[in-house]
Amino acid sequence: MDIVVCVKQVPDTTEVKIDPETNTLIRQGVPSIVNPFDKNAVEAALQLREKYGGKVTILSMGPLQSKEALKECLAMGADEAILLSDRAFGGSDTLATSHALAAGLRKMGKVDIILCGKQAIDGDTAQVGPEIAEHLGIAQVTYVSKITAVDEQVIRVEREHEEGYEVIEAQMPVLLTVVKSINEPRYPTVKGTMKANRKEIPIWTVDDVEVDRDALGLKGSPTQVRRIFTPERRVQGEIMQADTAREAAALLVKRLVDVKII
Amino acid sequence: MQFQLTEDQQMVQKLARDFAEKRLAPSVAERDEKEEFSRELFNEMGEMGLTSICFPEAYGGAEGDVLSYILAVEELSKVDDGIGITLSATVSLCAWPIYAYGTEEQKQKYLVPLVEGEKLGAFGLTEPNAGTDAAAQQTVAVADGDDYILNGSKVFITNGGEAETYVVFAMTDKSRGTRGITAFIVEKDMPGFTFGKKEHKMGIHTSLTNELVFQNVRLPKENMLGKIGEGFKIAMSTLDGGRIGVAAQALGIAQGALDHAIKYSKERVQFGKPIAHNQALAFMMADMATKIDAARLLVYRAAYLKDQGLPYSKEAAMAKLYASDVAMEVTTDAVQIFGGYGYSREYPVERLMRNAKITQIYEGTNQVQRMVISGAILK
């Protein structure tokens, strides 16, 4: 089985700072990580390989430093990794990114399952996965929380909902986006890490793939980011003080009645 | 001269850091409070290969270097140095002497499972009456046909009781003094090998410390490590390496305490501003950071020398002496920065200060380190 996992290197959002002048992310000094949902996708791919055999390839589009993220996926146990990197890809929004990744996937030839995280934690759009499936004209299932069965033609998965899950069967090849609850990503091992470090990661430029150049980069991006900002903090709630629980409860009820909540 | 870690070293460091933050940090306070050693967490470390870093592939190792291993001990110790010393004891004090002095059969039988983290190792040298004076061993091994009969006891043994493999030192010929000491590999389930009291310690509660008791333990002569009478040499060279591990533990403790102090001092507001804005505290932290960096350079250099196959006994002693003193000073200052909260078990610096003390004591007190250093420079 040929499995490809699309991953994104993202800034560690626990440490994200925004430049108040330019309203852009300050990337300098902010550690980069593999998008956490993508790690779930890698884990799902590795589990599929363990069960059904085959090969797991990681694909990413990004600047050369994204190699770090690919190495981490290789250290987890992926077989190969490929990076799409070119100035022509720079400034891409989700649509342009999905065109580039779809072109990369076409070049890879036979692929049975494409796995993506449900969304990236920096943009939170959840668009790239579904867009890739559209470009490739294959089935897609989003928010997958369990892969229950796979045969040569059909895959059966559970799709997470707020109130439960759907059981979905899809024709292969298929693109799945996975949620956090699907698994617990494994830790890379020391040996895997050292092996990953020595592995060649091919870089594919825009010349290596067949793609409409106008669909890439800023030119191919209908979305333009005008401003990124931290929403203003809401005012702190009202703190009521009383000497006893009984008084506190009375105060609270009175206040709730005043504002017509009860 | 390079001051930059290689990519391999950085990746091992990151691996250990992630593991420490995700797996050790959530439970360390509770395990400390309950004085609980977690075999489960150690097993996870084994599966990740943290026990395999600095050994050759032929014995299940990852072919990394000593410095990578030391970086792992440091990272674990920032969060949970009890686990840090658990790793250091099994790798530096048990696996290493078997690797360095063992026969091929001993390496296959005992080293491989230690490297792969399936088994835990320990080292038994100290006795109630043979601490710094290690030559005063009262544990004896007497030849009996093809076997040796081991009698005696060992105290303060890290990983004792839980470890499956022990490197134990015993007198085989009292008349020869230090040259009458021999090393043996003892298995946990050998008849006559039992465990005495578990120590209740000031700190490092997340690691085990136990007494080993040997009553007529029959050891096949294949379990002799090195040659007869070589035990003292094996013990001393093993401790040279172990000291780099203790130094890394101390370094981790110190860095952990400084990280907590920096964070807290930026958040804690008194007189309308974060306490970090007081120069008195800011300068304290500047001194802490400087001392830690100096210690770090000593520790990494000792590991580097060991990697290069160069003499490192003096440098390991310097690293252990300095890093452990820095750990004690820095953790004391960190508690001071936290004020009353620092003295409370609600905050981690209290634990770090309790734990720092042992690094000035074990694997040779800091007075012993000065003996090693002065011996080397005055010879």
From TrEMBL, chain A:
Q: Which GO terms describe its molecular function?
A: electron transfer activity
Show the CDD domains listed in the entry: ETF_beta (cd01714)
Q: Which Pfam families match?
A: ETF
Q: Which cofactor does it need?
A: AMP
Q: Where is the Electron transfer flavoprotein alpha/beta-subunit N-terminal domain?
A: 22-213
InterPro entries on file: ET-Flavoprotein_bsu_CS (IPR000049), ETF_a/b_N (IPR014730), ETF_b (IPR012255), ETF_beta_N (IPR033948), Rossmann-like_a/b/a_fold (IPR014729)
Q: Which domain of life is it from?
A: Bacteria
Q: Which PANTHER family match?
A: ELECTRON TRANSFER FLAVOPROTEIN BETA-SUBUNIT, PROTEIN FIXA
Annotated family:
Belongs to the ETF beta-subunit/FixA family.
Q: What is this protein called?
A: Electron transfer flavoprotein small subunit
Which organism does this sequence originate in?
Pelosinus propionicus DSM 13327
UniProtKB/TrEMBL annotation, chain B:
Cofactor(s) annotated in UniProt: FAD
- PROSITE patterns linked: ACYL_COA_DH_1, ACYL_COA_DH_2
Family to which this protein belongs: Belongs to the acyl-CoA dehydrogenase family.
Q: Which domain of life is it from?
A: Bacteria
Ranges for domain Acyl-CoA dehydrogenase/oxidase C-terminal come to: 229-377
Q: Which Pfam families match?
A: Acyl-CoA_dh_1, Acyl-CoA_dh_M, Acyl-CoA_dh_N
Residue ranges of domain Acyl-CoA dehydrogenase/oxidase N-terminal in the record: 6-118
Q: Provide a Gene Ontology MF annotation, just one.
A: flavin adenine dinucleotide binding
Instruction: Name the keywords, alphabetized.
Output: FAD, Flavoprotein, Oxidoreductase
Instruction: Cite the CDD domains for this sequence.
Output: SCAD_SBCAD (cd01158)
Identify the PANTHER family for this entry: ACYL-COA DEHYDROGENASE, ISOVALERYL-COA DEHYDROGENASE, MITOCHONDRIAL-RELATED
Protein's recorded name: Acyl-CoA dehydrogenase
| Organism, as annotated | Pelosinus propionicus DSM 13327
- The UniProt record lists the Acyl-CoA oxidase/dehydrogenase middle domain at 122-217
